[in-house]
Amino acid sequence: MPIWIPTPKWKGQDVFIIGGGKSLEYFDWNLLKDERTIGCNDAYLHGSDICKICLFGDSKWFKLHRDRLAEYKGVIFTNVGRLYNIELDWVWSMKRMATGIHSDALGWNFNTGASAINLAVLLGASKIYLLGFDMHLTDGKNNWHENPLDKPNSDIFTNFNNGFKCVAKDMKAKFPDVKIVNVTDKSSLHLFPKKGVKEFWDERKRA
């Protein structure tokens, strides 16, 4: 896999991160066609006009999705160390750090969404909008998509929250000018300013 050298191709731009929360089950994906987006894991299934960049951080997930990913027209990133030596020229790799936000690596922070924040910063984002960062089960499910790899488990959100604490701390110290807004109704992630989904998109349409 080629190694990506951070390049701020989206410098000063808004970047949307597509999470996996069930709140996105009925989301109008067309809203993202003209936006810069980083999709976590299965978001690539919506195509490259919706999900411009796909980021994954799990080798089991990659094994399951490899064939379909090969047909995806967007850009693919990973920080899975065990995949670095695989000869695939269509997946960009970066070093993984356990926690935090880094200028030469992607902090894992126990979840892909947190890693995506790190990637957005390296791409030059000035504002980062979080979509589907529910951080809780809804109707007994974790995700808006089918997930045959992981059984629904509310305990994982404790680790996720701990990871986001590291993200919030490093963002304040290293990238204080980058604004993060959680555009997720009923989210249990309280470390970043929140905006209601309808309110946010109504305002964006008027802007």
Q: Which descriptors would you attach to this protein?
A:
7-stranded parallel sheet, 4 helices, 207 residues, alpha/beta, two-stranded parallel ribbon, sialyltransferase cstii, chain A, globular
Overview of this protein structure:
- This protein has 207 residues and is α/β, with parallel strands linked by helices.
- It has one domain: sialyltransferase cstii, chain A (Alpha-Beta Complex).
- It has helices spanning 59-69, 112-122, 156-174, 197-206; strands spanning 14-18, 36-40, 53-56, 75-78, 92-93, 96-97, 106-107, 127-131, 179-182.
- The strands form two sheets. A seven-stranded parallel beta sheet has the order 5-4-3-2-1-8-9, sandwiched between helices. It has a two-stranded parallel sheet with strand order 6-7.
- The longest helix has 19 residues, at 156-174.
- The chain starts with 13 loop residues before the first strand and ends with a helix.
- The model has no long low-confidence stretch (mean pLDDT 95).
